[in-house]
Amino acid sequence: MPDAHFRIGIDVGGTNTDVVLMDGRTVLGSAKHFTTPDVKSGVVNAVRTVLDTTGIPIGSVRAVMIGTTQFVNAFIERRGLEPVAAIRIALPKGDGVPPFSGWPADAIEAVRGEIYMVGGGLLYTGQEYAPLDVDAIRAAARDARARNIRSFAISGGFSPLCPQIEERARAIVRDHVPDAFVTLSTELGGLGLLDRENAAIINASLAALASRIVPALGRAIGELGIKAPMYLSQNDGTLITADRAMALPILTCAAGPTNSIRGAAFLTGLTEAIVADIGGTTTDIGFLARGFPRETATANHIGGVRTNFRMPDLLSIGIGGGSIISEEGGGTVVGPTSVGHRLPAEGLVFGGATLTATDIAVRAGHAEIGDPGLVAHLPSSLVDAAVETIHLRIEEAIDQIKTNAAPMPLVLVGGGHILVNRPLNGVSKVVRPDHAAVANAVGAAIALASGRIDKMYDVKTLGRDAVIKLATGEAIAAAVEAGAQADAVDVIELVELPMTHMQDGAVQVKVRAVGPIAAFA
Amino acid sequence: MYIINSPRDVQDMARGAVVLGTGGGGDPYIGELLVAAEVANGNFPKIISCDEIGDDDFVLVFAGVGAPSILVENLLSKTAMLRVLARAEAHFDRRVDALLCMEIGGANSMMPLALGAISGVPVLDADGIGRALPQLNMTTFSIHGCPVTPSILMEERGNVVTIEASDDKMAEDISRAATIAMGAGAFCMMYPMSGKRAREVTIHGTISQTLEIGRAIREGRNSHGDPFDNLLRYLNSWPDRTAKIIFDGKIVDVTHEIRNGWHWGQARLQPLNGGGDDCVIEIQNEFTIARINGETATIVPDLITVLDRESAEPLTSDMLAYGQRVKVLSYSCDPVLRRPEALDVLGPRAFGFDEDFRPMEELLGLREPQQAVG
């Protein structure tokens, strides 16, 4: 099959490892296995199942795309983290708000190695206000080495304007600590020193874990006999290479929900829609715009630490297939408590003793699961009230995630989709695609490569057109660098934010460009 | 006198400052981190009331000036704050007995607390506006004829500009030009005044007010009560102030634009069920007018604050977006801001509206509006 474009998409979740095998735009097969502690065997088992059931020869697989929540979960659980030396190049500015400011105590305990604040930094114009204090960087590197710290996070005031300042510091650190794992803040974030620095520190703390898990994924692929390149999914629904994932594991932290939204888009052919992933305990609602999840505009917290990392804008409500139904003060309450993954044992239709949202759906005739006879006794008034509550709550969440009142299509994925059975306000149509249960693995399989910039430009001097051209050019170059096919890169987001209060022409410009993986064309 | 000795109090104060920011004033977050860390290390800001300050004591306003987008990169330097204090004491040749807050709404609420914590100089429980407003000449200091200058502007490298201006408008223009030259962010000590003068020209009790507003919201949430009940009970406990929720609904449309360096816009709200009244809020950095069915319900300098309708978390104007469920709080300003000479500089016409100020009590048919005394 020389012309086949077989790809394998894998989603390594906390509980399940999902795999799909796709030929171009067609899903040929899928599988679900438990995630194993070593990650590798779960992947091997699931991929082998798909290859066996589809009969596709291993040699014709062209690429493997993996989304994983392993790194973000490790940080949230403070598991397997490295102590980090945080070097900030900003003195004489910023000494009142040192690195790790605002971190939860348990995260500081797990991650804070040492703090070094050294001289250097830029003004918003890009001019240096103090030269890089080379001696202080050397001293910091030597001190960290003496303390057996190998992971470094380097940040600097207004460094996105001129990343070279952090790069010079990295070179000095590596001179003194040859096996140092160094994260630069400019590799991760836009403006907002503390948030960008936090992202760099989180990333540095994941160094050891990344150098274990990413190669393990590679070995799993190798063990299966697959020779194709492996990519990992990042937060914005695009791909990075295994090397880049080893260097910047934090880029993968919100890939799970992103892949689910992207997969839903792909399976339905929609580019503008609301996507609701209805699971056992929660419903996660996202907004699909131009084929990508809309991202949050404000600060995000990862494991209690504030970052300005772009994440999909999700609204989570406590309604799922396992939500417990109760009656309080004359009203019917759905969730937020849930029997979760114990639904097949505890739900009434399965012979259990707890009234759940799934039982309501079965009794209302929306779904055929378990034994309907076990819920026949439920009074219609209770069933009607619960059905109404579920729909109203989902309607309200959909309205909150939208940007205006115009009705939009709703894509339902996840096992709990049976809870929705009537038209919803603000929704033009409800779509339930095939393969919805593995939408996240599909989202991984179809991902593109991307590049982005977030910088301050002087519009007064350069002119607006020249600034836009400059900024989009840099974003496109970054996308090509990340593996995109040079002649097929699209700019999918362009935001200009003039600086308020000063009226002097400085504008912050954010651009995101994406394109198909060149190696795959 | 009392001390701020728990990081939780600092968090409450920052949230209270956002409520009084009426949608603008900048994010207190960076300052909050500094003050909370100082408090955690035992450096407690001392708050003294206007009754406790001596007539002949020397009081200076301490503030950060420049663009909010600069603060998030420069953060705050303790060394520079102490240097500007020392420089001011050298310039005026006397010890600073108390620090004064310029604008309690937003980011500058934290600045005197920060310097107070690291220097030990007490912070006067007062400010120059009782809310947030976009210009220096809109402070009660200026309205009472207390000049901005001599002022000391300094940034972290030690560049210092001492300003002696012919009037406050010149002071603002010079400060702005010097601040841009310094990198668009600087620390400023200004409005030199005696304790007696400070008692006359400030709005009293506003530092404590941020703490109590934040505490009312937090305790309302934690007790599973209604944070709004708690908040309104607290705000209405002030004898000369009135607060009321004037709208409960969702945002159905928002426009944002940057005009001459300021954030302009408009938010339109409807009740949750879609029908009925309609509320429009005008934005000029801060929320300036709330109209219900086209009728003015609250107008600047009375305060308008938009809060999340469940948690009572205050929202800034740039955070407003379609679909948010919110309540709109109307809160009468300090009576001083309702005097004719104050309304001349910070009344509706100063913001380009072709209408006169009317107190929210009158607009909403509540109790008699509070008259300014003296």
Key features?
heterodimer; A: 521 residues; alpha/beta; B: 374 residues; alpha+beta; 17 strands; 27% strand; Oxoprolinase-like (chain A); Hydantoinase/oxoprolinase (chain A); ATPase_NBD (chain A)
What does this structure look like?
The complex is a heterodimer of chains A (521) and B (374). Helix content of chain A is 32%, strand content 29%. With 521 residues, chain A is an alpha/beta fold. In chain A, helix 1 (40-54) runs parallel beside helix 7 (207-223), helix 9 (255-268) crosses helix 13 (439-445) and helix 11 (357-363) crosses helix 12 (380-401). In chain B, the strands form two sheets. In chain B, strands 1, 2, 3, 4, 5, 6, 7, 8 and 9 form a nine-stranded mixed β-sheet that branches. An eight-stranded antiparallel β-sheet of chain B has the order 14-13-12-11-10-17-15-16. In chain B, helix 1 (7-20) packs antiparallel against helix 2 (29-40), helix 2 packs parallel to helix 5 and helix 9 (206-222) packs antiparallel against helix 10. Chain B starts with a strand and ends in an 11-residue tail after the last helix. The A-B interface holds A 90, 92-97, 101-102, 123-125, 129-130, 157-158, 191-195, 297-298, 399-405, 497-504, 506, 508 and B 30, 33-34, 36-37, 66-70, 72-81, 114, 118, 156-158, 176, 179-180, 183-184, 250, 252-253, 258, 260-263, 285, 319, 321-325. Chain B: InterPro entries: S-Me-THD-like_C (IPR048350), S-Me-THD_C_sf (IPR024071), S-Me-THD_N (IPR010318), S-Me-THD_N_sf (IPR027479). Chain B: This is DUF917 domain-containing protein. Chain B: Pfam families: S-Me-THD_C (PF20906), S-Me-THD_N (PF06032). Chain B: Residues 9-164 form the S-Me-THD N-terminal domain.
